[in-house]
Amino acid sequence: MQLITDEILTQVITPRLPETHKGNYGRVLVIGGSKLYGGAGILSASAALLTGAGLITLASDTVNRNALHARYPEIMFLDWTDLTTLSSLIKQANVIVIGPGLGLDTDAQKLLQLTLTTVNAQQTLIIDGSALTLLATGDFKTNCPAQLVLTPHQEEWHRLSGLKISEQNPIANQTALATKFPKQTILVLKQHRTEIYSHQDIFQNTSGTAAMATGGMGDTLTGIIAALIAQFKDPLPATLAAVYLHGLAGQLVGATHYVALPSTLIERLPELMVQYSQKHSK
Ligand SMILES: NC(=O)C1=CN([C@@H]2O[C@H](COP(=O)(O)OP(=O)(O)OC[C@H]3O[C@@H](n4cnc5c(N)ncnc54)[C@H](OP(=O)(O)O)[C@@H]3O)[C@@H](O)[C@H]2O)[C@@H](O)CC1
Ligand SMILES: Nc1ncnc2c1ncn2[C@@H]1O[C@H](COP(=O)(O)OP(=O)(O)O)[C@@H](O)[C@H]1O
Ligand SMILES: [Mg+2]
């Protein structure tokens, strides 16, 4: 198991080149945020914005539109019942996140089905939260051609892999990943010290704090992963950097706050990114 340290940030986060525009920093589409869990979609999309993705759209229940725009008008919004527009936005995106606060009802199932059947091999699909639970219990294809990044907590991984939490160990986890998911899949198994699995390698995060143990923290991680993949392309190093950066921002907030609110954590991301981009080494 390889330990992830802040070296991954200096490797992955490069300074921006002067002659660039928003289109060079990637299009991220977040599909999430039901009536009950609106905050989850907003946190994911907001995290992608503050991690530097060029263009971000949140497809969500319409009750969430005003709350999103009161916070970040930079993010575009689509009513997720408009499946025709959603389908074309899925095709245009570089990275799609599905699941934070999606819910488990039949509309959520249709959105997951549409996404899995629309994405192509040039895109990254990050599957989190309710979409993982749906994937575990329903009849969905998991052999979709996109680069997959799965971000379960241990109970979501139990549902997906069949491994009880007490049975989850590196060998069992990597075997389950290899048997059940396409070879390009990355597994981010979230916990106190999050583990990241590819079919070849296993990594463990060294950043983070118990101040991060609060609702919405995983939703936030999805946006950070999406934005780093959208900007820096190579999905495995970008995912490792995202997990480390999330924990580091949590530690910064946690140093002075008993609980690190996800909405506070994301505001620390732009300063951390500029700091590490200046140290960039390749
Ligand atoms: N503001 C919002 O809109 C928010 C919206 N959210 C959205 O809600 C949806 C449901 O997601 P969910 O994670 O809350 O519920 P679920 O899938 O039932 O899992 C919980 C079960 O798993 C167990 N468990 C075991 N190990 C664990 C671990 N390491 N980490 C965490 N749990 C662990 C845990 O055990 P227990 O707490 O009983 O010890 C419990 O039995 C999803 O779409 C999400 O995006 C949330 O993000 C909150 C903020
Ligand atoms: N004690 C802890 N130490 C470090 N990180 C933690 C701790 N507790 C939770 N986290 C992090 O918070 C996130 C929780 O994700 P998740 O359970 O999906 O939250 P939610 O669905 O509420 O957004 C993960 O990234 C996890 O690593
Ligand atoms: Mg979650």
TrEMBL record:
One of its GO terms (biological process) is nicotinamide nucleotide metabolic process. It catalyses: (6S)-NADHX + ADP = AMP + phosphate + NADH + H(+); (6S)-NADPHX + ADP = AMP + phosphate + NADPH + H(+). Keywords: ATP-binding, Kinase, Lyase, NAD, NADP, Nucleotide-binding, Transferase. Its cofactor is Mg(2+). Its EC number is 4.2.1.136. Pfam families: Carb_kinase (PF01256). SUPFAM superfamilies: Ribokinase-like (SSF53613). CDD domains: YXKO-related (cd01171). Residues 5-276 form the YjeF C-terminal domain. InterPro entries: Carbohydrate_kinase_pred_CS, CARKD, Ribokinase-like. GO terms for molecular function: ADP-dependent NAD(P)H-hydrate dehydratase activity; ATP binding; kinase activity; NAD(P)HX epimerase activity. Homotetramer. PANTHER family: ATP-DEPENDENT (S)-NAD(P)H-HYDRATE DEHYDRATASE, ATP-DEPENDENT (S)-NAD(P)H-HYDRATE DEHYDRATASE FAMILY MEMBER. Belongs to the NnrD/CARKD family. Catalyzes the dehydration of the S-form of NAD(P)HX at the expense of ADP, which is converted to AMP. Together with NAD(P)HX epimerase, which catalyzes the epimerization of the S- and R-forms, the enzyme allows the repair of both epimers of NAD(P)HX, a damaged form of NAD(P)H that is a result of enzymatic or heat-dependent hydration. HAMAP family: NADHX_dehydratase. This is ADP-dependent (S)-NAD(P)H-hydrate dehydratase. The gene is nnrD.
